[in-house]
Every structure is written in C-alpha cells, then in structure tokens.
C-alpha cells in the first residue's frame, strides 16, 4: 500500500508536489542520469508514523559503487578547474531551491523521517545555512606564502581540491548532515559519491541530487548510491578512489569505516555518537534549566547525536527539577508529524524502538523510577523522565537515542564532572549556573568537543567548528575546518637564484 492520502503543508496532493518520490527520481543518480532499479533489489521506504510504504528505491550494488567512483574521478578535474564563482553560484542556486521546495520538504521530513514541522523547519534552515557557508568557501583564499630558510627561495602553499569525496550519512538529520559535506565539497572543486542511510534515501541523498541537477551541476560531480550499509558499506569505505571518507553515524560502524579508509590511504572524517550531559549546578536558574532540559531531550524524539542523554542535577534541586521536567514531558503533543501542533513523532524503526524500550525496562528493573511517560505504541514512545538513575544503568551508560530523560543526582561540582566524563564519548554538553565563572570551570573540565553554558547541547551553527573527542569522532565540520579536510595543501617552492649545494 502506498501512502498517497497525504497532503503537503500547503494543501497540495502528493502527486502535485515538485519533489514527490514517484516523479522518477526514486532511482540511483549516476553521471547526471536517474537510473531505475532494473534487476537490482529494492529498498522499501516506510512512513514510520503510519507504517505504510512511502516508496522504493534501487539498492545499489558493489558494481554501482565502482561505477559511481569512476564517474566521480573522471568528472573531478574539469570541475575543480571551473572558476570559483561558478562553483559557488551552483551551490547557492541549489540552496535557493531548498527554500523554494520548503513545503514539499516538510512533507517528506514527516513521511520519511517522522520529523515534526518544527524539526523540518530547523533542518531546512540548517541545510541552507551550511550551503551558504559552503558556497562561500569556493572564493576563500586558502593559499599562503612562507619565507624560506634557503636564500633565494620562495615557498608557496597552494590549496587544491582533495579529489573524490565519499560520504556516508545517517537517517536522523539526513538532509543537513549530507549537505554539510556535499555543499562545501562541491564548492571547493571536489566530486562526490554519496551513500545515504537506507531508511532515508530521499532526504539523505536523492533530494540533494534533484536540487543540484536543477541548479545545473555538471554530470558526474555528484553521484548518489542508496544502499544497505551491511551490503555495500565495506566496499564503499575501503575503496581506492576517494581521497576523503566522510562518515556520520554510530561509533561502532565509524571505527570500521575509519580503519578501512586509512587502509586505502583515504583521510577519514568521522562524526560519531554521543552521551551528552546536561549539568545543573546548585545555583542554576531552575526554570531555565528545565526548559533547556526538555528541549534538549525530546526534540526529534531524542534522536540526535547532540541530544541530552543524561541530566546531571545537584541534589538540592533534584526533586523540583524532576517534577518540572516530568510536567513538561507530559504536556508534549505526540502523534503523526503531519498533524498540526505535534511536537513528538515516531522513532525511525522497530530496532531503534526495541533498543530504547529495552534500556528503559532494564533501568527500571535496576531501580530507576518512571516519573512521566514510560509507554509506547507502534513506533511512538512517550516522552519519559526517569529519577533515581545511576551512571551504570543502561539508559545512562549507553547512547539511548530516544525521548528519554534519565536524571542523576550529585553532591559536588567535582562529582558532577566525574559523572559527565564517565563515558567513552565526548561530543556535546551543557552546564547551568548563575555564576558563569563556575560554569566555565565545569565546562573546561568536561571532556567533550562542545559545551553550552546556560543552554542545552543541541546546538549547531554552520560557521562554527562542530565535532567531538574520543568515541565521538575525528576532525571538525563546518566552515574553515571542513575546508581543511576537503582540500589538500601543496608546497610549491621556487628557487629564484642558483642555490649552493654542499657537493
Ligand atoms: P549507523 O552507524 O548504523 O549508520 C550510519 C550510516 O552508516 C548509514 O548510512 C548506514 O547504512 C552506514 N553503514 C552501516 N554499516 C556500514 C558499514 N559496514 N560500512 C559503511 N557504512 C555502513 O548509525 P545510525 O544508527 O544510522 O545513526 C545514529 C548514530 O549516528 C548515532 O550514534 C548518532 O549519535 C550518530 N550521529 C552522529 C552525528 C555527529 O555529527 N556526530 C550526527 C548524527 C548522528
């Protein structure tokens, strides 16, 4: 059954949408052509809210991956030589098209990703932001001149495109997490082969191919091969052609991707999982801390690498904090993301639901108390607040990736820091205090790539360095930091007068 009864945000039927999946682009995108499935297997894409079929896309094979890399390699050099303003203009045009299609995208976010309107708007803005910043990189002078220790020599550092960039992305913020690599890569003169997640091949890849095609990107510069990670992932990430392997996803898969990439002399850029803590010190503004805590835990059902995974709250505020958070959780409207006013939609699939519910049930069996929520129906999990949580409970020591807020109590700032750092992850975090210097001391001691004082961890700004330490990844995304990854510096020296050699 196909989910055709739905309407877009502006009231059009699905078959009237410009980017409805049945308009011929639920295909592979190779060398500027939409390649239908032929005798390939299909990936069935399901609406997680209704559990009905949305569409099916071809499942790329290892041969398709080889072909995509060969096409990208062939296309790169001509593209890299195009004037920077031309490359920037195409990325800017693709960015503008995302704005034009915002209503269609909102519908697709709902039916493919289970994302509510708020999240759709937020993600579209982020995708546009990263495309604007990415386009600007084309014109950024990255080269340098360095004095030489050798008389008569001039040293030049020339910035060149890295070459072919392989991109693997997850399902949770598919359009943004894909755009944040594809846009700067293309602007900087690289070509790209993209493997979106099998749950979100449209928003994670084919939508971008569609808008870049319309923006006039030359054939072969962007190629999209939807496929199962367990089928083509090893071949994709260990391939000899790409110079950069950009991976966003779980730490477990990312470790293997990084190892295979390095084995093929490909530079890995890894954005991985998190176990982010929201620390509430005894002098915090309680209402602000609770507001931030609810937003950081329940937005997009807690399915972000930078969601709050643990609330770490001083014992003097603990009961009030738990009660306030439970109150917020109970008020959040839960349902089909296409229904107006919905703030909590479904989680992406059964295996994620089962994992989250398993962590919850085991933690309750180990002594945690459900203060709000706790139930589930289909792929909908109620926003849940747990008190009496300790660091060793499954909801706290794992990345639960669900609408679940485990609250842990502490006595001293030192103990809070110990709890925060008791994880292999180190992505984001937050600290609440009315004494900014005290919050700053805690932020300094947190072993993470990012910390937000008097806010919550869910922050990403396309012009600010984003990334983690430890099991949360290698390298930084956004602006000049991703530019370093997506380009290579060549040292060219010019010996302007004869040099005296020792023999
Ligand atoms: P996942 O690792 O299971 O899948 C991510 C991608 O990897 C998918 O495209 C998948 O098909 C592919 N893949 C699977 N096996 C592969 C293999 N052997 N080789 C190559 N690719 C393979 O992750 P997920 O469950 O889809 O996403 C959630 C995870 O992503 C969470 O851990 C989350 O924290 C993390 N994440 C991190 C960031 C960040 O910026 N740090 C952002 C979003 C999500």
From TrEMBL:
Name of one Pfam family that matches: Aldedh
Keywords: NAD, Oxidoreductase
GO molecular function, one term: oxidoreductase activity, acting on the aldehyde or oxo group of donors, NAD or NADP as acceptor
Cross-referenced InterPro entries: Ald_DH/histidinol_DH, Ald_DH_C, Ald_DH_CS_GLU, Ald_DH_N, Aldehyde_DH_dom
Keyword Glycoprotein: no
Highest taxon of source: Archaea
Residue stretches making up the Aldehyde dehydrogenase domain: 34-492
Keyword hit for Glycosyltransferase: no
Active site residues per record: 271
Subunit: Homotetramer.
Family (UniProt): Belongs to the aldehyde dehydrogenase family.
Listed name of the protein: Aldehyde dehydrogenase family protein
Protein source organism: Natrinema altunense
């Amino acid at each position: 059954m196909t989910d055709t009864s739905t309407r877009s945000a502006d009231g059009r039927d699905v078959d009237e949408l410009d980017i409805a999946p049945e308009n011929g682009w639920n295909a592979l995108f190779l060398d500027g052509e939409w390649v239908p499935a032929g005798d390939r297997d299909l990936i069935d894409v399901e609406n997680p809210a209704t559990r009905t079929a949305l569409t099916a896309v071809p499942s790329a094979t290892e041969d398709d991956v080889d072909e995509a890399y060969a096409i990208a390699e062939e296309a790169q050099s001509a593209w890299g030589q195009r004037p920077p303003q031309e490359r920037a203009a195409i990325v800017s045009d693709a960015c503008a098209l995302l704005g034009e299609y915002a209503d269609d995208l909102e519908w697709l976010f709902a039916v493919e990703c289970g994302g509510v309107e708020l999240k759709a708007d937020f993600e579209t803005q982020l995708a546009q932001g990263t495309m604007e910043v990415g386009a600007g990189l084309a014109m950024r002078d990255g080269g340098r001149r360095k004095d030489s220790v050798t008389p008569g020599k001039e040293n030049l550092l020339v910035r060149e495109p890295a070459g072919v960039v392989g991109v693997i992305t997850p399902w949770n913020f598919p359009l943004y997490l894909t755009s944040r690599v594809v846009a700067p890569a293309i602007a900087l003169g690289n070509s790209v082969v993209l493997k979106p997640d099998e749950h979100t091949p449209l928003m994670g890849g084919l939508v971008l191919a569609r808008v870049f095609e319309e923006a006039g990107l030359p054939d072969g510069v962007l190629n999209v091969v939807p496929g199962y990670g367990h089928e083509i992932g090893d071949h994709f990430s260990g391939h000899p052609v790409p110079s950069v392997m950009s991976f966003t996803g779980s730490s477990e898969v990312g470790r293997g991707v990084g190892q295979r990439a390095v084995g093929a002399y490909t530079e890995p850029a890894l954005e991985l999982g998190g176990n982010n803590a929201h620390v509430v010190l005894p002098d915090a503004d309680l209402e602000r801390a609770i507001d931030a805590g609810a937003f950081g835990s329940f937005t997009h059902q807690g399915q972000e690498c930078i969601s709050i995974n643990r609330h770490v709250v001083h014992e003097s505020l603990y009961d009030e904090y738990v009660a306030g958070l439970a109150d917020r959780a109970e008020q959040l409207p839960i349902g089909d993301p296409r229904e107006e006013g919905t703030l909590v939609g479904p989680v992406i699939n059964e295996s994620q639901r089962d994992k989250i519910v398993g962590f919850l049930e085991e933690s309750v069996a180990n002594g945690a108390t459900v203060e709000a929520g706790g139930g589930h129906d289909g792929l909908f999990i109620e926003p849940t607040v747990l008190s009496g949580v300790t660091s060793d409970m499954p909801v706290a020591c794992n990345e639960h990736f669900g609408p679940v807020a485990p609250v842990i109590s502490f006595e001293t700032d030192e103990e809070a820091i110990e709890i925060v750092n008791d994880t292999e992850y180190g992505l984001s975090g937050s600290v609440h205090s009315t004494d900014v210097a005290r919050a700053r001391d805690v932020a300094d001691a947190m072993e993470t790539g990012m910390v937000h004082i008097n806010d919550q961890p869910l922050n990403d700004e396309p012009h600010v360095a984003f990334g983690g330490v430890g099991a949360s990844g290698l390298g930084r995304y956004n602006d000049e930091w991703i530019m370093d990854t997506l380009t290579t510096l060549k040292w060219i020296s010019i010996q302007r007068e004869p040099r005296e050699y020792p023999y």
